[in-house]
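tl;dr need the bound structure. longer version: we got a ligand (pyridoxal-5'-phosphate) that a collaborator sent over and nobodys looked at where it sits. i said id run it. heres the input, straight from their email, havent touched it
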Amino acid sequence: MQDPLVQIESNVRGYARLFPAVFNKAVGSIITDTEGNDFVDFLCGAGSLNYGHNNQHANAALLRYIQANGIQHSLDTVTTAKVEFLEAFERIILKPRALDYRVQFTGPTGTNAVEAAIKLARKQTQRSHIVAFTNAYHGHSLGALALTGNQFFHSQFYGSHNNVTHLPFDGYMDDYDTSLLLEKMLNDSSSGLPKPAAVILETIQGEGGVNVASDTWLRRIASLCKEHEIHLIVDDIQVGNGRSGKFFSFEHAGITPDIVCVSKSIGSGMPMSIVLIRPEIDAWKPGEHTGTFRGNNLAFVSARAVLEYWNDPSFEQQIEDRSQIVQQKLQAICLNHIDQSLSFRGRGMIWGLDMRCGDLASQTIQNAFKEGLLIEGAGASDQVLKVLPALTIETSVLQEGLRILESAVDAAIASRHYISSKTPTTAK
Ligand SMILES: Cc1ncc(COP(=O)(O)O)c(C=O)c1O
């Protein structure tokens, strides 16, 4: 289909090019275009739709709220929607996990939370340096961009690289434990690394290619931060909200970050970002970090509704059951193409199928789209297919999406064989 917005929307549009369709309806994990084509959604709004499109509980609460003329915009005044969200967040999420955090509402998107987190760490410690990691993705406003690894998003003219050092993430140097490098650099006054205000990390790098940090590595980083009085910021924007199988991704490692960034699925599709702050380091003066759209009341309402999933003791098991289905299929795909050395990795409901080649991944994405599946690439050259189904996806829909994925991979590899069999290997 011809992109109808080609004349009016900025050249910057991206997903519109990847998926040439006009979408107009979505329920759960099925999204439908204007021509009546259904697509299984493994894109999941890049992690914003963990509870599916138009989640019935969120929608019912929103409809009730709007019909009752509930407050929509309120800056950061107190509204019943905010009170009810915060009360439920504390009762359902924080207390059962013995977590003591204050909640800061920032502007509505993930990068706003990251900006607030690094500003707070800098202000509170009175240090300006931040350590981030290779392949990190923290957003595109200039502070967050400075932490983001991929050079594709950078330009020397943005001037945003100040006061950030990137060190190797877990697994970046094969079996070498990269926490040893951080340890050595922190302990060596001649390493060139200024004592940082914070270390920021994703426990599973989503955009960076589904790189899963081991629990041991995370614990080592957390204990180094503690030892050196450096704040540990976990960016749980993509892999929080249950994506890893637990509400917070750092629960697996048993660590307690000083600051946590949460966004994407927290509002069940409504824009919302929060920063969780250890109370002792909540050094903000009233109104010192502000913004017009903090505290979107519609997001409070939908967020409150979907928190109920976490009241169900079997919810984590349901995620795990779906996770097993994904793993089995990815394993089968890799075994079927053993000559291609494909591999897969992930946790919970975030999985990466590493195609080792951006072109092959891109061909697979196009094939999948034609067959009725939305999926995107991740990693330095978009070589990893990011399998991100909703946590609540029906198993039959999950299986159908995985079937399409398998078929799309098969076709992409078959066409590559065809092309290479037609291409002379040496120039005569
Ligand atoms: C880990 C992480 N941090 C930050 C962001 C930025 O969030 P947003 O695009 O909502 O600004 C993203 C977005 O993908 C992300 O995955």
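gonna send this back to them w/ a short note. Residues 424-428 have pLDDT under 50 and may be disordered.
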